């Protein structure tokens, strides 16, 4: 759809990283007038040339937007985008909807929602799952909660970005809670998959054949099937970085303490991600946990980076 055929609310996407760029693309393809903002001017220029408009500041991105989709790394960055100096709440029009997509602790989502609503805007708690490819396809899973008026105002945009849209409750923080449960499982599954593939290598097995067998067997998981090809290819360019899971499993550890609910398996997975980051692989793909296992055991995995990357 061309820029002359846009319709509906005006949307600004704050954060054009691997997820945000694809989400902005999906919105533009869905017929929305989309403005993109990122701290990297070259990324903004690329998006503007291909899909819509670019903004040079948060204030410019917020001005005139009906919906602001905030796709940054964590709660602190979200708070800075919304409430920091030059943040969007100072410029967003009354009644605008903030769609917050970062994974964060539920209490942080509730606090941000209260600040947004006190400023006369709406807040949708909308963490996302699915990865960069699905973001670009408009096929994310979105775990949404918020006041009905906020969801109604942003529903068409949410639909344009997602294949599965779960409406989980009327209060912000519920979506965040669902995402944290998902991240507990995702982090554990990546750590377990990494352990299993290197264990198979120790047993002298052809790990490509192991992958074929396990993906057709009861031991398979989505994370094993999605991440272990990175190990087979020796390609650890970040689709989802190790540091994402040090953050998310860290949030789970914090909640575990505050709720006095033990999460020993998630805690073990967190330690594996922390050790992987400490070994210099924090910004690499999260399948790098397998590289850590291999280094500890003195096992060579495919690709020189599997055993020699010490950055």
In brief:
By secondary structure, the protein is of the alpha/beta class. It has 14 helices and 9 strands.
Structure description:
It contains 14 helices and 9 strands. It is α/β, with parallel strands linked by helices. Strands 1, 2, 3, 4, 5, 6, 7, 8 and 9 form a 9-stranded mixed sheet that branches. Strand 4, helix 4 (75-83) and strand 5 (97-100) form a beta-alpha-beta unit.
- Tell me the series of helices and strands, N- to C-terminal: EHEHEHEHEHEEHEHEHHHHHHH
- Please give the oligomerization state of what you see: single chain
Average pLDDT rating = 94
Helix-strand category: alpha/beta
- Which regions have little confidence, pLDDT < 50, spanning 5+ residues? 305-311
- Please tally the helical runs, counting DSSP H or I stretches of 4 or more residues: 14
Largest sheet: 9 strands, mixed
Note the beta-strand portion: 5-15%
Q: Total number of β-strand segments? A: 9
Helix content bin = 40-55%
Report the radius of gyration as a whole number of Å.
20 Å
Distance between the termini: 44 Å
C-alpha geometry: globular
What brief labels describe this structure?
311 residues; alpha/beta; nine-stranded mixed beta sheet; globular
Topology (SSEs and partners):
Layout (H helix, E strand, L loop, with lengths): L9 E5 L3 H12 L3 E5 L3 H11 L1 E2 L3 H5 L4 E4 L4 H9 L13 E4 L5 H13 L3 E4 L2 E2 L1 H7 L2 E7 L1 H14 E6 L6 H29 L4 H8 L7 H12 L8 H18 L4 H18 L7 H9 L7 H4 L3
């Amino acid at each position: 759809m061309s820029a002359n055929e846009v319709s509906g609310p005006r949307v600004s996407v704050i954060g054009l990283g691997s997820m945000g760029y694809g989400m902005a693309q999906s919105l533009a393809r869905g017929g929305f007038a989309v403005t993109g903002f990122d701290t990297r001017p070259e990324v903004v220029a690329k998006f503007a040339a291909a899909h819509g408009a670019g903004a040079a500041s948060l204030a410019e991105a917020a001005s005139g937007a009906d919906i602001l989709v905030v796709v940054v790394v964590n709660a602190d960055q979200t708070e800075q985008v919304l409430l920091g100096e030059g943040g969007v709440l100072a410029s967003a029009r009354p009644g605008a909807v903030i769609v917050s997509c970062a994974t964060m602790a539920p209490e942080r989502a509730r606090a941000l929602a209260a600040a947004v609503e006190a400023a006369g805007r709406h807040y949708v708690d909308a963490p996302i799952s699915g990865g960069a490819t699905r973001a670009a396809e408009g096929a994310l899973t979105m775990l949404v909660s918020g006041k009905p008026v906020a969801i109604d105002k942003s529903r068409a945009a949410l639909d344009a970005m997602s294949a599965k849209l779960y409406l989980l409750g009327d209060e912000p923080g519920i979506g965040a809670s669902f995402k944290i449960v998902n991240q507990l499982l995702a982090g554990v599954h990546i750590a377990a998959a990494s352990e299993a593939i290197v264990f198979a290598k120790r047993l002298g097995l052809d790990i490509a054949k192991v992958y074929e067998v396990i993906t057709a067997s009861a031991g398979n998981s989505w994370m094993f099937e999605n991440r272990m090809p990175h190990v087979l290819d020796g390609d650890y360019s970040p689709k989802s970085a190790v540091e994402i899971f040090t953050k998310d499993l860290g949030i789970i550890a914090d909640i575990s303490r505050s709720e006095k609910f033990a999460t020993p398996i998630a805690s073990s997975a967190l330690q594996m991600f922390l050790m992987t980051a400490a070994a210099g692989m924090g910004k690499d793909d999260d399948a790098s946990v397998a590289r850590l296992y291999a280094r500890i055991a003195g096992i060579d995995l495919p690709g020189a980076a599997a055993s020699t990357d010490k950055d």
